[in-house]
Amino acid sequence: METTTEIRVTETDVDYLGHVNNSVYVNYLEKGRVHWYTQHGLPIDEMISRNVGTVVLKLEILYAKEARLGETLKVKTTPIKIGTKSFMFQQNIYNEKGEIITEATVTNVMFDLLERKGIVVAPEIRKAFEEMKEPQIKG
Fold this sequence. Notes:
The chain is an alpha+beta fold. It has a single domain, classed as Roll (Thiol Ester Dehydrase, Chain A), CATH 3.10.129.10. About 25% of the residues lie in helices and about 40% in strands. Strands 1, 2, 3, 4, 5, 6 and 7 form a seven-stranded mixed beta sheet that branches. The protein starts with a strand and ends with a strand.
């Protein structure tokens, strides 16, 4: 249940060193996750109408290569683990040559926007994780 999101590097993404700033990759990863949610039946507007969302609990990033202005990158988002209130994605960003430039593991928590606390993972997300070949389900 992997998704791929294409992102074009723009002038605002590039820092004074002439490459994508490290903080921008976090935004690219977020775009990849939003695309994943949408592809699995839970777009952001639907989450908001249900007063739910997701928040990042933990983000681990390895910056392997640089990206430059004008490149088209691919963000691959793959579900890897799900719990009662949290779930984890592996996200890799690839350059035009197909090389991994960024690797990330992201743990998210399902979040009640009114109560401001973690809640049980939405059924659409759980279903997508359970459809994986060998999901790692805990709790």
